[in-house]
């Protein structure tokens, strides 16, 4: 017995000896992001090894705000992400509900097409989307352009379909017997029951909108209409730019999401893992 | 159960409308645009124009080669790492599990722009922390940005850092759905942990691994932000230019939509082909 428990101890030590350095390597870029954001530019570009935060964050933030209107861009990013998340959760759960709970003509085709788009690169729709939104609809540099085209997502619908189809039939049948309309059953019976799944979905969608880069870069390129990642991206590669400022911006984009991640880890992980678990 | 066409389609309508306008039509449209000369006004139908140029364009083959190179090296390394992370995070022997999970999963919430900026600073030739650390253990500095091989390595390192944890989350969920009693039976039969991993975990996890592979391949196939921001528009001298970047340059810098659409369809064709091969290789034996 004691030899077995000492073998267990040995395995446990080996596990931590391997995993701890790997975890530290993984945390290192995030840690350095914070460190850089608190260092003056001449400190970032100096020969010494600096691994601890300094006290220059506010100066860096002011430099960033001088280089680009980052606060304004954050405002756009937050508003767009909130609106997008609300609309997308609504659309996605409605579609998921229909696919889970009704029998209808063409259902198999709809599901097959949604599954098919998972393996289709976004690049294929990018150019016509851009031509349509910018030239035909004349919506470049508007919020609509940022919010509406990305509303289609396939994994979210499959996730909600899965969530609704696991609910027992009699919950809804009872309401139907009472003569409650279908949309009321959806809104007042199904959605409240799906609250944890909706939370997971909302977090993933919010994050996707918050971090979205390529589409906002293309469609909202005017300074006053840029999202925060796009505004920050325009600074990277400029010669006369404050790198401390860029890092302050990176921290402002990242740290709120890290806090949300820590607080809502369960929902986050459920949302990401949902894609694979059938 | 009776058919409820009207009700069902009322719930599906907004979603399908967005899908039709912003996906179905663009998929058809970009196929048609790829057969048009788009730098004349008005655009004219010229079937061989873009595709003919594509098959003789060294820039295209360079981007294709780089994309495939990143694909065949980065994706397997990352998925292997993600499997290792998931297995170890799943170990009952692990203490302070939450801290380790945070370390590996945190990059999932980090935006491409933010992390590209950090990696640029960390890998800077003279002042980057990576070269300083290499020097401090007696190794020479690496010029990560002016030589092709280190620049490619840097892109792969960055993408792996960003996405390994994401895949580990999916794999971990898959592992946790394997019933515990399978392992209990194996342990009773004195099957070693290592054998349990190779003969129980891996085979049962295969569908999840394939799912991760497919998602990763499609993601890497479209790689854009990292070579755009970290190695400065695919530098050095096109050494890290990817198909995604070529599409961006052709479509949105040169406004050559026809050629860019041909590039886009090449990416789609490759993604679909690789996915099909993957599904075929991992099909269930009859």
Secondary structure blueprint with pairings:
The complex is a heterodimer of chains A (278) and B (286).
Chain A lengths: L1 H36 L3 H4 L12 H11 L2 H32 L5 H12 L4 H14 L6 H5 L6 H12 L3 H9 L4 H12 L1 H17 L2 H6 L8 H8 L7 H21 L1 H9 L5
Chain B lengths: L4 H29 L2 E2 L6 E2 L1 H9 L2 H32 L7 H9 L6 H11 L6 H8 L11 H29 L3 H9 L4 H29 L3 H6 L12 H11 L3 H25 L5
Antiparallel strand pairs in B: 1-2
Helix pairs in contact in B: 2-12, 3-7, 3-9, 3-11, 7-9, 9-12, 11-12
InterPro entries (chain B): ABC_transporter_permease (IPR051393), MetI-like (IPR000515), MetI-like_sf (IPR035906)
Organism (chain B): Mesorhizobium kowhaii
Family (chain B): Belongs to the binding-protein-dependent transport system permease family.
Overview of the molecule:
- The complex is a heterodimer of chains A (278) and B (286).
- Chain A is mainly α.
- Chain A folds into 2 domains: 2-58; 68-235, MetI-like (MetI-like fold), CATH 1.10.3720.
- Helices cover 75% and strands 0% of the residues of chain A.
- In chain A, helix 3 packs across helix 14 and helix 11 (195-211) crosses helix 15 (265-273).
- Chain A is globular, with a radius of gyration of 24 Å.
- The two termini of chain A are 41 Å apart.
- Chain B has 286 residues and is mainly alpha-helical.
- Helix content of chain B is 72%, strand content 1%.
- Chain B contains 12 helices and 2 strands.
- Chain B has a two-stranded antiparallel ribbon with strand order 1-2.
- In chain B, strand 1 (36-37) and strand 2 (44-45) form a beta hairpin.
- In chain B, helix 3 packs across helix 11 and helix 7 (148-176) packs across helix 9 (193-221).
- The mean pLDDT of chain B is 91.
- At the A-B interface, helix 1, helix 4, helix 5, helix 6 and helix 10 of A face helix 1, helix 4, helix 5, helix 6 and helix 7 of B.
């Amino acid at each position: 017995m004691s030899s077995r428990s000492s073998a267990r101890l040995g395995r446990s030590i080996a596990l931590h000896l391997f995993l701890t350095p790997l975890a530290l390597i993984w945390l290192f870029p995030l840690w350095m992001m914070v460190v850089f954001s608190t260092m003056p530019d001449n400190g970032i570009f100096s020969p010494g090894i600096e691994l601890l935060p300094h006290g220059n964050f506010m100066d860096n933030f002011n430099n960033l705000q001088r280089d680009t209107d980052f606060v304004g861009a954050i405002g756009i990013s937050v508003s767009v992400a909130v609106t997008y998340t609300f609309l997308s959760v609504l659309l996605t759960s409605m579609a998921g509900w229909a696919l889970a709970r009704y029998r209808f003509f063409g259902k198999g085709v709809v599901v097959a097409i949604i599954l098919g788009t998972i393996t289709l690169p976004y690049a294929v729709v990018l150019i016509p989307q851009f031509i349509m939104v910018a030239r035909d609809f004349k919506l470049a540099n508007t919020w609509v352009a940022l919010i509406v085209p990305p509303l289609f997502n396939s994994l979210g619908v499959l996730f909600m379909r899965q969530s609704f189809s696991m609910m027992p039939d009699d919950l809804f049948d009872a309401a139907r017997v009472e003569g409650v309309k279908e949309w009321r059953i959806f809104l007042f019976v199904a959605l409240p029951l799906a609250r944890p799944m909706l939370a997971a979905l909302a977090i993933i969608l919010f994050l996707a909108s918050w971090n979205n880069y390529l589409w906002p870069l293309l469609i909202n390129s005017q300074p006053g209409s840029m999202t925060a990642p796009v505004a920050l991206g325009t600074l990277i590669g400029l010669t006369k730019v404050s790198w401390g400022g860029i890092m302050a911006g990176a921290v402002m984009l990242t740290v709120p999401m890290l806090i949300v991640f820590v607080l809502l880890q369960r929902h986050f992980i459920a949302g990401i893992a949902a894609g694979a678990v059938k | 159960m009776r058919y409820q066409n009207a009700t069902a389609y009322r719930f599906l309508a907004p979603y399908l409308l967005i899908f039709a306008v912003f996906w179905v039509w663009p998929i058809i449209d970009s196929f048609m645009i790829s057969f048009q000369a788009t730098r004349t006004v008005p655009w004219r139908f010229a079937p061989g124009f873009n595709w003919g140029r594509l098959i003789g364009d060294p820039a295209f083959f360079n981007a294709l080669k780089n994309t495939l190179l990143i694909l065949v090296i980065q994706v397997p390394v990352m998925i292997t790492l993600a499997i290792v992370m998931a297995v170890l995070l799943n170990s009952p022997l692990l203490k302070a599990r939450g801290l380790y999970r945070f370390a590996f999963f945190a990059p999932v919430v980090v935006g491409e722009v933010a992390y590209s900026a950090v990696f640029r600073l960390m890998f800077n030739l003279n002042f980057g922390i990576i070269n300083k650390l290499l020097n401090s253990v007696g190794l020479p500095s690496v010029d990560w940005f002016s030589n092709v091989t280190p620049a490619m390595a840097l892109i792969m390192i960055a993408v792996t850092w960003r996405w390994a944890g994401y895949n580990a989350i999916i794999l971990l969920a898959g592992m946790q759905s394997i019933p515990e009693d399978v392992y209990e039976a194996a342990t009773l039969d004195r099957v070693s942990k290592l054998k349990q991993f190779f003969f129980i975990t891996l085979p049962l996890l295969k569908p999840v691994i394939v799912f991760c592979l497919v998602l990763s391949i499609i993601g890497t196939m479209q790689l854009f932000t990292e070579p755009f921001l970290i190695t400065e528009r695919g530098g050095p001298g096109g050494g890290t230019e990817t198909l995604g970047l070529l599409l961006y340059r052709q479509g949105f810098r040169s406004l050559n939509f026809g050629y860019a659409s041909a590039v886009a369809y090449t990416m789609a064709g490759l993604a679909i082909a690789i996915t099909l091969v993957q599904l075929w290789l991992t099909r269930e034996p009859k």
